[in-house]
Every structure is written in structure tokens, then in C-alpha cells.
User: Fold these one by one.
Assistant:
Number 1:
Amino acid sequence: MALSRRDAMKYTGLAAVTAASSGYAKGNEGAKAAAKGVLLSPAPIPAAKGPRVVIVGAGPSGLTIAKYVKKGNPNIDVVLMDKRSVFMSGFISNLVATGVLPLEFITHDFLEGARNGNYTFLQATAHEIDRTAKIVYTNEGTVKYDVLVLAPGIDYDYSKWTNGDAELETALKTKFPGAFIAGSETLTLKSKIENFEGGVFVQTVPGGNYRCLPGPYERSCLIADYMKRNKIKGKVVILDENPNITIKADGFHSAFDRLYKDYITYMPSTTITSIDPHKQKIVTELGEEIQFNDAALYSRVRGNKLLEIAGVAKDSVFNKGEANIDPFTYQVIGDLNVFCTGDVRPMGFSKSANTANTEGRIVAGNIVKYLAGTELSQKTWASPHTTCYSAVETNPLRAISVNAGYAYDATKKSFGFADASTMEKWDTKEGEDAGKGLLEWGKGLYRDFFN
Amino acid sequence: MERRNFLKIMAAGATVVAVNPSLIRGTLYADDGRMYAAYEKVQIVDAAGVPIKASSLEKEVTYIFNYPYAATPCMLINLPESTSQEVELKSEMGETYVWKNGVGKDRTVVAYVAICAHQLTHPTPNDSFIKYVPKSTPTMAYSKSGIIVCSSHLSAYDAAAGAKNLAGAAQQPLAAVVLKVADDDTIWAVGILGADKFQDYFKAFKPEFKEFYGGTAQAKQLVSISAKTVKLTEFSKEVIQY
């Protein structure tokens, strides 16, 4: 349910700001008033010159939608906002963390996208959304919308490991981040790998529909490859909550067996019961104790908490707090002016950049139609595409890949893969070609986001 | 010949060929006035500058020539069978247009801009991910071959039907090169049909233009008189296809 603006400010945004500012300037009514003034004034962007689409989250989904809404109808005013000042991609980041590619490869400029796409980029954090008045409250001020797109991506869900213990969660996030939300976590992972002197490196694989299904396996291969290249006596121990590798299983299994027999230990169906980040010890449901020298502990994922703030969150069959939307139109149930896209969607699509990119183009087209008065429905739905490559070895770069669309099964009331194919023969010429394909695939996505 | 030199020659494109327009007859196979841009009429020639005859093109081989700009690669293909005719196509902006048919004696010769309509992947002297996949070669992108595939994100296009989309993320066909075949079987490019991505392309690949063509200004020069054509395997060091 949408809060009224008054309630919203009372309970969340302003209350928090008031608390924060009162700590700094106790009794300073002037400072409080100034803070309110900034937060309640329009953000410093030009007034809308047409119907305005505001997109929160400039990841693969938001960037694609901003560009293609504007392309679809240049009279629509598009504002793309993100709390970050620099774009860093999760895709390709395992190759950066293991020193194969430079940071520049995955690091990009939001302003370039805004210039080329003719939309407004606002670096701001959304902290409140009033869906009745159609206003997004940010730390830079207010932004009114006609259509709102929430594409904030995932948050981590540590609850299974921490049971709400904030101290433990913070320690895990700080010392052993999952590195599936790109940015500082990526840099931490990079430095962990560069400084690894030997021993056990744990990589966990969560259950649920987690972001980038092949990511943890690819990373394990690349860390093992790094150890091999640098003659480091170490082992990657993969603790997988799932009963088997979740995607491209043949390719990864054969890489583990044939390339990294002495470097990778794969433990499927492993439920972790406790993690001690200080003693660096993990205990599993079966009582196994794993002492580790370093780790990337990838917890379960959930929808970004912005959805809860906006009152549009619902637990899906996979994860907590995902978007409560019509799966065909991406519109919030009961509020057609709000779309939720990318990794917060509750459908079981792969949470990956290519999926978000292809989906973003479809949704952008539908937003343009919707603003022109068309009612969206199952008929306006089209399948996103999941095409992705995973590196398994770096000299030469070899990869495996998957290519799939989705189809709706009316009897099961869910989506499944359609026309899926994989290429898992990393040891052939095709595998080496796929290594090159991986780089061109990534470059294509960056081009689409920023050019 | 080194690729670099070859490109320079392609970019210059100033081979002098006597053109007698009266030699060129037959109808434009694609122009119905919609989504069509006429460019300079240029003759398709081989690396030595000798005019290529339509019937001499090897079947199912991807040839590359740059047209209408010095740095915009196009594919020339002699298909195993006659193409479809009067194919209705739609651009990603919803504009419709008609691709008429292939040219040559058996209507088997087609040409398309080799810049993928999805994310602009195209052949470079280093590598190519986009090509015609012969009927006997399987592809991951689609259930049957004899089609054009961009192996970067696996968009598939129907080579015999105006590069109509068959599979993958591309939301419009490849732009088509409008060809004419003269009475003497020589091939001429006269324009571009469909929604090209030239502006996006020129924005996205500036460092590449500098490396291979000297700069963006040189890359944007219009090709005139003739366009040199080589097999894709000669144009790119590596050709990658799934």
C-alpha cells in the first residue's frame, strides 16, 4: 500500500534525516530546516519537457531502458538515477579479479550514456517513494514521475547464515564479501586473489535464484587457474547449497576434473550451519569443519529493499522481497505506472546482464506504448534472451556458453527455458572461439549501455 | 598483401573504372521508396580491381566489401537457392519496408550491411563474429543453417529473405545493400535499404577507426566508383562462429 507523502516523511525519510542531523547540530533548528528544504525541494535537474519516466538503478536494466525509451519517443523526458558515480559491471569481473583484464574493461561512465542517449543522469539515492503523489524522494531532492521504473537489483540475504546477527553479517560483508554486487566487493576480491599465499579459498554457491548462475563456478576455475599460473599451493573449495552445478554443468565438471583436479574440491548439497569470520571456519549441516585462508562468501540474494520502501515487494518462490508485478507487463499489481525490471523480477529468469539488457529493450518499447495509451498485456510480452559465456581457463582464454529464451507454461503458471542450447566443449576450437566471444559479448553490452 | 594495406586501398576506393550507366539495366530489387537511401553507385571488384561477375561468386562464401562508407563492412553472398521475393520487413522503430529479392541469374546473390542490428558487432581485420553459416554447418543460434549468424549474442538472420530476424536479441533485420547486376553480369551497389545503424556505429568505434582507417573522418568517407571485395577469411584474421 502506498503511504501518503506526509506519512512517508513522518515514518522514514525525514525522521532518519532529523535524527542524523540532530546528532551533529543538536538544537540547531536552522540546520534541520535547511535539510528539510533540500530534501523537499525539486532535485536540481531541468523541469520535465514531456511525460517523465524516472528510472531508479543504472545497471544493465536501467541503462537499457533509459536509452530505448528515449529512442522510442524523444519527447519523453527520461531521468536515470543511481547512487553510484561510476559504473562497474559484475559480468566480466571475474577476469578482472584474477588479473586477466584491466579494471578499465568493466568500468564505465554514466555521463557518456546520458550524453549519447539524450537523457538526464542524476547521481542520487532514492530513500522514499510516494506512489500517490508520484514523487521519488532522494538525497538530492524530489523527482516527479509519470512512469517509474524500479531496477535497483539485488541485495544480499544473509539471514540463513546470521539469523539477524548484524555484527556477524557486517563482519562477513567486510571480510569475505560475495563479490556479486560490483564495486568495492570486486576490488576486495581482486586484492584477496592477488595476495593469496596458499591454502584454502572457499567459494560458496547459494540456493534460490541467485545472480549470475555460472558466476561462482567460473570464478572457482579462474582462481584455480591463477594458482596454477603463479605456482601457488592452494585449493578452491566450492561449498554449493545446490545438489549439482546449476548451469553448464558438463562444461564445469569436465574443467574441474581435467584442468583443476589438484586445485578444486567441489562439495554439492552443502548447507552451512555456522561461519566464524574471525577463526575463519565454516561448519556444515553434516558436521564438516572447513578451515579457510580466504573466501568469497556468496549468500542468498533478495530483491533490493527499495521495493519494500516503495511498497511493491513480495516474496517470490525463489527469493525474498522481489517485485509484486504482472509477469507479462512488469507493471506493479494495482499501480500500472510503476514497472519493476532486472534482477528484482520474480520470474525465474536468469539474473544476468544479458537477460536484463534484452528484457530492458522490450520493456522500454512497452513503456513508450503505454504512455501513448496502449494497454499492456500478455500479448505485448516478448521473451528476454539469456546468452552468456563463462571462462574456464585463461591461457588461451577458453569459455563455455549458454543461449536460451523463455516460454510461459500456462498449466504450471510459470516460465521455463525455450530453445536452449549450450556449448560446453571448452577444450575444442569452439571453446577457444568462445573465449574471444566472451570479450566481444561484454563489449557489445557496454556499447549498448553507453553509446 | 597485408590486411592493413588492403584496408587502406579499400578505404581509398579510388580505382578508376569507366562507368557506362547504359550498361546497367534491370530493376532495383529492393527499392519501393520506403526506408531506402541511395548512395554512390559503385562496382564490386576484386582485390586487384577487376570487376567481379555475379556468377563467379563461390556459393555460400561470405565476401566482404566496404559500402557506402569507407569503414562500413557489408557481406556479399551467393546463396545455394533463389531467395524469397517481396519480403515485408519491420525496423525496430516499427517502420515497414519491402525487400524485393536476390539478384543474378538465379536470384541468389544478396548483400547486407555486416554490422549486427543488435549491438553493432562487425568484421574487423582482427576478427569477425558475424557471417553466413553454410547449410552444412550447424549453429547454436538457430535450428537450421544457411543463415547469417552473429556469434557475439547469437542473433540469426534469414539470408534469403532480406535478413529477416530468425532468433536472438536483434530487433530488426540487418540493413540490406541494394544491388544491381548488369547485362555483363557485373555487380553494382546503389543504396541501403532498411534501418542502418551507421550513426551509432560511427560513435562507438572511434579507436578502431583510428587504428585501421586513420581516423573517424577517413572512416566516414563515401566509397566511390568501386568497392574492393575479398572473402571474409581474408578480411579477418579470425572468423568465429558457433
Note: The two ends of chain A are 38 Å apart (CA to CA).
Number 2:
Amino acid sequence: MIQLLRAASLAAFALCAGPVSAQELPAPTGETLLTVTGAIARTNDEGAALFDRAMLEGLEPVTIETETIWTEGPQTFTGVSLARLMDELGGEGETLMATAINDYAVEIPAGDAVEGGAIVAYLNNGEPMSVRGKGPLWIVYPFDASPDYRTEAIYSRSIWQLDRIDVLP
Amino acid sequence: MASLGTGTIPRRIGGALAAAGTIVLAAALVLWIVTSALREIDDLATASSDDVEWSLAQLDVEYLRLRLALSEAQRDPGALDAVRRRFDVFYSRIATLSSGEVYSELRADAAFDGALEEVRAFLDASIPAIDAGDAALRAATPDLAAAAADRTDDVRTLTLSGLATFVDMAETRREQVMETLSRMAALLLVLFAGLALLAFWLLRLNRLSASRARLIEQTGTRMRTIVETSLDAILVTDEAGRILESNRAARAIFGYSEEEARGADALSLLFPDEDPEAAREGALQFLESGRRPDPAEQQFELMGRSKDGRAFPVELSVDRAKGPDGPVYVSFIRDISRRKLAEEGLTEARDKALAGEKAKAEFLAVMSHEMRTPLNGLLGSIQLMRDTDLSQRQAGLVDTMHGTGNHLLGLINDVLDLSKYEAGKLTAETRVFDPARLLDGVVETTASLAAANGNALGWSWAGAPVGPLKGDARRLRQVLLNLVGNALKFTRGGAVEIEAEALGNDLLEIRVIDSGIGISPEDLGRIFQDFETVDSSYARQAGGTGLGLGIARRLVEIMGGRIGAESEPGEGSLFWVRLPMVAADQAVSGTPLAADAPGPGARPLSILLVEDNEINRFVAREMLQSDGHEVTEAVNGQAGVEWAERRRFDVILMDISMPVMDGQEAARRIRSGSGPCARTPIVAVTAHALPEEVARFREAGMEHSISKPIDRAALSRIMALLGDTSPEAAPATASLAALKDGTDPDVLRRLVAKFIGEMDAAVAVFPDEDDMGALAAQAHRQAGSCAAFGLGELRETLARIETEAKEGTRPDREIEALADLWTRIRPGFVAELESNAP
């Protein structure tokens, strides 16, 4: 319920901020955590959109409760929905090529960027994630919500230590 | 094949159970396989593992990158950040391996876990240096590089053992999948086999039902053909008797078309002549009570009527069967009019044949009688010739003629007896007789034959003598004469012995034993059959028709007895006769008239002899004249009547078959006329002796009869009888007392003496009197005498004798009563006679 209220308020905010969205993406002030390139409408650095933690936290945080095969016990993940992120950037691609600090790379279909779908998590159990703890960003699916999210393809798309997304047209 | 046998029902139930079990088993199998397959699918649908191989490969890569960064940092201090990042990445990888669920199975391997601990210890120990400032890190870099290098083997161990475990896991998983697939394949095979079986079974069922349907159709066709080609009408009716179906024969016989017959009431349409109510209560009773007809009720006859009105008898055979709408009755109907006709024809033919047989027997009897007439002349003449002077040679010839004639007479008598028997005209008489006297007579009669063959002949009692008996003495005598005659014929120079014996109280056995040639055992059985002469040489030796013993057997049977023979060829034979023995209560009174002596009271008579045959007339006249009678001859009935009107005769002897006027007509005229002879006794002289003829003679007025050929003794006897009791000698009608009062004692004495004589004669003659008419006449006359002397009881007894004799039955009881009565009364009359003695 809280999530829904939050989602609703964020949506309202997004509508109000419609004109602002059309504007240039503000430049990051802190350490850049995520770089989005490719087929996006809004950028803030030579065709790329750079995000620091504050910018990400400003994009309607979403929390997922689920277990993962890589952790022990129930986990909460808080982050920005992939769909919200693509909206923010006006992404028009079919595929998101996500790459991690450890150079792991995987193609995520644009279709995964839906409401209640994958999120770009920046908090695990309310704590920021270090690189040693699969941070700072981790694309997480709501695995427990549906068996469709417990497939090897989805697991392979759950990329941790994320730092770049290239939106392929 | 499903049959109707009793054993198939349990088999069917067993089959059904087996089928049900198979289906349940198959369902359970399918369920199990599907469940496990679904679980497998479920497992496959949600992968519980990430790409472990990738992770392990990355472990190596990230470890090497850390070491590369560390060695770079020793040369280039600006690369410290890279060291930190590579450390963090490697740390993250190790942390994931340490905590991730997906790697729990890898961690279960001791080598893997140990190596992991080593690496983690290294990483944890390195953290302070990594997290410290650049200067400190820079200073620690060589040590870190060395420590990292020391972990090369551990990282290698992690990779290799992890891979090995993963391979095992994959192997297990593949085996599981393979197992599931194998199970499914097996199940598929089983299901396929089951389906194949099912298909085969269905095919068989299909074939079976097809062949059954074909069979039923064939049966039906055959049945229809049978029904349609039947010569008998076949009707199928419902319970109410309405016609449901009919066959071609039914339509042909009754003439109704199928449409006319269907639905009609069978009884009223086809059998209108039968009373429906009576039929339903009678032959069709089973229809009323709606049950199956009993076997006895299934066949009966009715009168049918066809559409064109022809009535005909039919025979029905009905039974009940199940129909689609309740029970039906199937009737086979046969037109039996032709059979009925044939039956009638047969009956008629049989009746005709029987009548023919009877006519033949009658003819034979008549012929035998007729043959006796000329014999009469022959034998009589021969008897008379003996009285004349003859030379020795002539006497011998006369004897031969006499013997031959007697033989011929015997043959004729045999045939006559047989004819009488076949015509059913022989019945046993019951009279009182003395067996001793009868046997005396038999011996006497056959003595001459015994002497001729040089045989000794005699009779004796075996055991106690038997007194008077009741029975048919005449027939017994005939039988014994036959047996003794045979014995004498077949014995030369031997002995023939007659033995009589009482067997118990009620059986008399008479045995005729000879010492003759005997009879072989195979012949013994058939000698009592007709026309059986044991050996042709015997027949030549003894002569005969072969009827003798057959007739003897019949006569014995008529008397209720049995006859038999035992013999030893060469030793002799024994013939026995066993008869029921009924003792008579009284002695035989009087003596029968001797064959060769005139009866008491014989006197010369004037006799009218009416006879057309000159020889017979001559013989009879000679016999009568030799007894001292006066004879007047008439050549036919007409002449006899004329003589009878002209003058009175004491007796008229009347032949029956005569030209111009026969004896019966003549007698009738004499009786109905008013001439002097109207009450003269007339004796019928006849070869006919059948009872109905005797009755006719009596009707014509001839109370007496004498058989041809005339036996001299019999003639003498009857003349003596008639002469003594002629009507003119009848006493006046007054009481004895009245007679005593006003009658001359001499006259009375004469009357009493005459009455005693008459009664003695009556008592003596009555038991042997064969002629009922004569008996009735004598009784009538005697009754008149009794009335004259006031003897009411005696008169009444005589009246009863007369009545019964007229009715044709022999009044044996009354005759005995008469003898008793007379025995009581006689002494008084004798005393009267003596008291009046002069």
C-alpha cells in the first residue's frame, strides 16, 4: 500500500514535472554510479546520461521484497524501476545492453522495463551496496512474484556491480 | 464366443473385473507418470541455478585481474584505484560463492569449502590495507601481490572442484530427466500396447457381432422359408386369440388374404362352427387362463370353415412363445378331412371283412350240416344192413363202410364244432353229472376202438373218488373221447389208462396215459393248435382233420379249465385236463336213458314221418318199425299237412329242408289248424342245430328236435318219451281228495301209478334235456297233472321250469328243486298206491 501511494505520488510528480523532463538532464554532483548511452532523448554529458546516487534516489524509489539465489534469506531491494529510468531518459531502444564493473555484460529486452518489473537497486536491506557487496547498483527482478522471473535468462539479466547501460535501437 | 452356457456368467464377471482393474492400473500409471513429468517440467521451468560455470570461470578471471592490478600498481602508483576495484570485484565474487544458495552444493565439497576459506581469509586480511590511504596501500602492494600469488592453488582448486561438482550435478539432473523420459516412454509403450489390445478386442467384438447378425439373419430367413413352405397352416395369435401372422398354407386352406386375417379373432373367423364359449372352456382353456398349454392340451381337433364356406375337420398343435408384446400362441393347423375319409373307409372295410368272415363261418356250419344229411342215409342203411343175413365177406365190408362213415361224420362234426366256436356260439352248460358214470361211458364208447388196436383200456380214481359235480358233462365227454380216441389210435398193442383225481377241493384232473409212440418235445407245443397233425405219417396212420385237439382245447377253455400234454417219444404220452370242480348238493337222480334200450313206458305209436329224401325216409322208417311203431310216410311238408288233417298220429317226425313246403311251414299249419293232430308232438329232424334255429322250430310248433344223421338210440328214446306222455293220458283237473271221494279206486290207483311214473321220468329226463322247448312242454304237461292231484308247490316249480325254459335259459336250479321236492313227496304217493292195493 505504501509502495502504491508512493508510486502514485511519484507519478503525479512526474506529470507535474513533465515540462522539466523535457529539459536537459541535470549534471551529477556526486560520484557517477551509472552511465546510460545510446538511443535516449535526454543526456547530460556528450550523448550520455550520467547518474549519481542522489539523482537515482530522486526517481521514485521502488522497493522489492524477494529471495535471490545468490543471497541467504529474504531481502529488500530499493531502487529505480527500469521503466521509470527509461521514461526519464526517453529511451526508445529495443534492447538494453547492461555492463558491470567486472565487465560482465548482458542484453536486457526493453520489454523487461515494465511497471512491477525489474528495478535498478541501490539499497539492499536498506543499506547502500559496496562493490564488494555486489554494489553499487544491481538490476533485480521480483523473483518471488512469478515463476517467470525464476528462469536462467532472468538470472543472467540480474546483473550486479552495474555501471553502464547502452540503449540499442 | 458368448454362449448361453452357465459357466460364462462368472467368466464374464471375472473379465469385467479384470478390465476394470486394468483401467484403474493404467490410470494410476498415467497419473504417476504425468505427475512426475509435471514436476520435472516445473523444475525445468524455474531454474534454481545461475550459470555456475560462468561464475567459476569469472572467479579465475577476476583473481588474475586482481593480481595483474597489484603488479601494475607496483610499477605505476596511479593504478591503486584499479587495485581497489579488482579487489572489490574479487571479494564480491567470493562473497557470492560463500553465501549464494546456488553454490551451497559446491560448498558441501570439503576441498571447495577449504579453498574458499583460505581465499576469504586472504581477502579479509587484505581489507585494512585496501581500505587504508594510497600511501599505505602503495606500501602494502608488494605484500598483497605476494599473498595473492600464494592463493593461486586455492583459486584453482575452487574452479576445478566446483566444476567437478557442477558436472556431477548436471549428470544427476540429466539422469533424472532421462529416467523420467524413459518412464514416459515405457508408459507410452504400455499405453500403446493397451490401445492396440483394445483395438484388437474391439475389432474382434465387431467381427463377432457382425457374424452373429449374419447368423441371426440366416436363421430368420430359414425360419421364414420353413414357415412359408409348410403344408400345414401356421397361425400366430396374441393372447386374446387375434391373428398376428399367417403363412401361405393358412391363406390357401382358409382362403383369407393376409389383410383380412390380420387382427381378426381366429376362433370366429376360421372356426365359426365351434361354440366359442364351449371351445374356450374346453380345448382352449389354456388361452383363458393365459398359460402355456400342457402337453396333453397341445393337440386337439376342431371344425374349420374356409372363406368359401367349405367345412373341414382340422387337427391343431398349439404352443405358447414369447413375443415382442407379450406372449403369442403358435398354431399348426392341418386339414385332416382326407385322413378322416380314409379312416372311415378303413372302418368300413374292416366291418365288411368281419362280416365276410362271419358269413364264411356260417357257410361252413351250414355246409357241415348239409353234409350230415346224406351221411344220415348212409350210416342208417349200414346199421340196418347189419340186421340182415350177410356173408362173412359182406359183414366185413359193412363194418368197413360203417367205420369209414363214422370217421367222416367225426370230421364233419369237428369242422362244425370249430365253426360254432368261431361264431361264438359255444357256451358251457352247468348240469349235475356223476364223473364216474361219465368215465364209464367214455370207456364203453371207445372199447371197440381199443379192441381193434389190441389196446387195454380202463379208468380209475387216483385218490378218493369224487361224487356228483356240476358242469358241462357233454363237452367234457367230447374232450375225453377225443383224447382217448387219439391215445388209442397212436397205441398198438399197449395200454391206455384214464386216471381221475381231485386236486384240492376245487380242481378235477383227468389224465389220459398211453404207452404209444409219444410226441417229440418240439411238437408238444403245437399239438393244441388247429390243423396240426404232428407228423404226416400219423395223419395217415390215424386219420383226422387235425382239429381234434384244437377243439378240445377250446372246449376246455370254455369250461374254464386247462389242457396240456407231456410225452417221451417211444415211451408214451400223458394228456391232462384240469377243470374247476363244483360239487353238486345232491345225488344224480335216476339213470339216463340207455342208448340201446327203449325208455320206460314205451308203447307202439302211430307216427307220421315227413321226409323228402327217400333214403333217409327208408332209414327212419326201418328204425321205427323195428321198434314196433306204425309209420305213415309223407314226401314233403304239403303231404304231411294233408296226412295230419286226415287222421290223428301220436308223433310227427318232420324234416326241415323239403321241396314244395318245408318243415317249419308244415308244422305251423298243423298247429294252427283244427285237425286231429293240432296238439300232436312234432319232432324236427335236422342237420341244423344252431340255437337260433332251434328257437325258430319251437316257434313253428316243434318242441322237440333230433339231429341228423338219426341215431337209432336217440330216436328210440324220444319216441318212448313222447309216447308215454301223450296229451290223452293227462289227468283230469281235480284234487286228489276229491278224486278219492268219488272215484273208482282202480281208476285212482291207475292214475296215481301213472303220475308216479311220469314224475320219475320227468326228474330223470329233465337234467339231460337239451331242448328247452321240449323241456317247457314237458314241464307244462306235468304241471297239469300236479294240479289234478292238488300238488301246488310241485306245480309252481314246474311252472317256473316252463317259464325259464321258454326264455331259453336252462333252469338247473329249478330242476334240482323239483327232484328234491319229488323225493319228499314220492313216498306218500307210493304209500297211497300200496294202501289202495287190491
Note: Chain B has six domains: 52-175, 230-335, 342-421, 435-583, 588-729, 730-838.
